[in-house]
Amino acid sequence: MTVHHSPISSPPQRGASESGSTILLLDQLRKSYHVGTTELQVLRGIDLAVESGEHIAIMGPSGSGKSTLLNILGCLDRPTQGRYILGGDDVSQLEDDELSLIRGARIGFIFQSFNLIEQLNIVENIEVPMYYQGWHERESIERAKELAAMVGLGHRIKHHPSELSGGERQRVAIARALSNDPLILLADEPTGNLDSENGAAILKLLLSLHDQGKTLIVVTHDLSVAKRAEKIVHILDGRVKEITVN
Amino acid sequence: MSVSLFRLKRTFTLGLKSLWMHRLRSTLTTLGIVFGVSSVIAMLAIGEGASKHAREQIERLGSRNIIIKSVAPPEDPENTSTGQGMRQYGLTYADAERFRNSVAEVEVIVPVRRLTQRAWYRTRKITAEVIGTVPWYPEMAPIHLEMGRFLSGTDASYRQAVCVVDTGVVEELFRFDDALNQDIKVAGDFYRIVGIVSSQNANAAAASVNADTPAPQDRGGANAGRIYIPLTTAKDRFGEISVQFGGGSGPNVEKVELQEIVVKVARDESVLPMKEILETLLKRFHAKTDYQIVVPLELLREAERTKMIFNIVLGSIAAISLLVGGIGIMNIMLATVSERTREIGIRRALGARKKDIITQFLSETLLLTLAGGVLGILLGLAIPLLVTRFGHMPTVIKSGSLILAFGISAGVGLTFGIYPAYRAANMDPIESLRHE
Ligand SMILES: Nc1ncnc2c1ncn2[C@@H]1O[C@H](COP(=O)(O)OP(=O)(O)O)[C@@H](O)[C@H]1O
Ligand SMILES: [Mg+2]
Prior knowledge:
Bound molecules: adenosine-5'-diphosphate, magnesium ion
Shape of chain B: elongated
CATH class of chain A: Alpha Beta
Largest sheet of chain B: 6 strands, mixed, barrel
Number of helices of chain A: 8
Structural class of chain A: alpha/beta
CATH architecture of chain A: 3-Layer(aba) Sandwich
Helix content of chain B: 40-55%
Distance between the termini of chain B: 37 Å
Number of strands of chain B: 13
Shape of chain A: globular
Strand order of the largest sheet of chain B: 3-4-9-6-8-7
Largest interface: A-B, 30 and 24 residues
Oligomer: heterodimer
Number of domains of chain B: 2
Radius of gyration of chain A: 18 Å
Number of domains of chain A: 1
Number of strands of chain A: 10
Largest sheet of chain A: 6 strands, mixed
């Protein structure tokens, strides 16, 4: 088991160092569900390549398959057909345990509803992904504190999620997503539960991460959020309808 | 290795935290384990106490001894109709004589007469058990000579007014004086104390065998001690037979020559055959069964039976408590898992493998049952104390039973924790994340 040491001051930005290389590749990706006797095709052959350091927005009407796609990108789910290459490895048909480790190491999730663990304080929440990657407690606490400070919550590390505002919770979630220095950050409507002011602040934080070289994939309904991305991938009925470059 | 130890520590800390959050629920949940574990400990302590008691009794009574006691025979309907009110029964000097003459393999035969009498020294007075016996009495009884000597052949031949007293008598009558060579008065006659003996174990003061039907002389449990006098002297002073008034109903008079004859054989293996022989002999000369044969070795079997009954009763209580407790714990853990579905989804999304989730919930269940085990051990230590104190039963707590109790708690935790943990680990992470 690898133990990562990545001080924030000099992040070994895997994406940034090899900017321009493809870190995520979808090849005729299909996903279908069996509902009763009928087969429901949700993703119908998606091709997509994401370069390291890119910022991509995914848009599409409700039910078009955005969440399904994001789940597969985040290694929470496996495609029915097609290939998914993440960081050079084919992860489309990995076993559950391998998928868990990959997801902890290479993916940073940011959810619409924050998904913090209520009984853990800020530092402990940020530590969770590092814990499952086998970090030593001393080091993971250290890094969690640094990350908390980086998202502007260094003075509240002992607080619990219930004591935080929505914007603050999302900051903790972002810090947590960064803890294992993932290949990509996946955000599903990251500003969807926030008022415009907090939403703007969170967007600013995400953009600054992108500026530091992070690869960012954001699912959003909000055109103003999507406009800040370099590319917008429009999904319709489980297919990529078009890709617009901002 | 050190990493996984860390993780274990963190997992347990986390478990403690979430149990602490629901402390009332956690406490109630462990009650089954608490009772189960405490019954196990109590069961083992009582059982162990019973067999230790039996072993001590055997040691005290002598494993090679056969004790024949006089016992009042069942009332003869004809006899009572005559209403004589005088009954003679029990062992006789002739019996002792017959044993001596007709049975080989016998090492020692000790006839014993027991009487309860007042004893005086100056102004102090006690009630003591007077034992009329032979000089070789110590060969079969675990008494230890502290001072002076035991009764001698000369004492017996010349029917001397001498006695040997035990430390109980000394303590009561001679608190400040030297007892040896003093004269004490027993039922009107003076006896010179020639020796002082102590019993080899503490319980021996009440050393008469606890048979189902105690001989009348056994009633006086409040005897301060024992006074040994030559059997010959006892015959002289107290007559050929002891007369005991009142058998409960009416003015009955009971006459008994010898209260006890102890036969000691040379080898353990001869005990049971010898018992048969003595029984045949007694049957031939006694019309009624006015005697009882006690074989200390058989007491052990009796103790084992008591122990087994306790084991069955308490073992059932333990098994049921543990089963019910285990199911309760499983139930609570299933509820916990479903309450924390979302947390499980989050952890899975952040890289937890199935086995990480299993570890998390299993260790929580283990903590719960081990906490129950600790409480159970405390209660289990208290029960034997109470049993000994108020039930007057000996109990022995062995360290092995504590280890067993811990093992049982852990076993229950693992058995009933695995299913909830498995359920938690196999929840679909995507579904779990959607869960509200
Ligand atoms: N587990 C599932 N079983 C059956 N159908 C599903 C499942 N998950 C999603 N779907 C269906 O797939 C379609 C796409 O859903 P989703 O990816 O959530 O769309 P979006 O996020 O774009 O709104 C929907 O019609 C939805 O009902
Ligand atoms: Mg959706």
